[in-house]
Known about the structure:
The structure is a single chain. By secondary structure, this protein is mainly alpha-helical. 78% of the residues lie in helices and 0% in strands. It is built from eleven helices and no strands. The longest helix has 14 residues, at 20-33.
Amino acid sequence: PNKAAPWVLKTGIYELKSDATNAKASLERALQLDPLHFRAALRLAAYDALAGNYDTAVKRFDNLLKSDANHTPARLAVVDLKRRAGAKPEELANLLEATVRDDPSSAVARVKLIEELMRQDQTAKALDAAQAAVAALPNDPRVYGMLGEAQMRSGNVELAIGSFGKLSNLS
Length: 171
């Protein structure tokens, strides 16, 4: 086939047979046919990460990000890979802040930023990010959940109860 999708589907068959060599070859072929195919890049990056080749895994997204610098799923995949490779927390937060800035409607990017800031014990920044997320996405239950968590961590139990109440009304 001259399209990427059948090669990606073929990968699943090879994976069912525990044939990683041919699975990776199918994904490579898919990326040759369509260098911007996110699923193929993501699955190949997973193989690279399993082998501990994080730099190679991150590079799988280069073409995609050169073509579309604001491809949020690719940017988030890069952050995840860099975290697993041991990147500095500041670098991860900076990448996530840039992703949110470039795609303010992405609840997933906002949630990951808030989680990262809380992981770094930057409660005040996490609370600010959560408040900004609620302002930008007032009907998204995920951001209300994160706001409640950030409020709890900052000691604002009453506010957290209100946020969790709003969350239950949205869910």
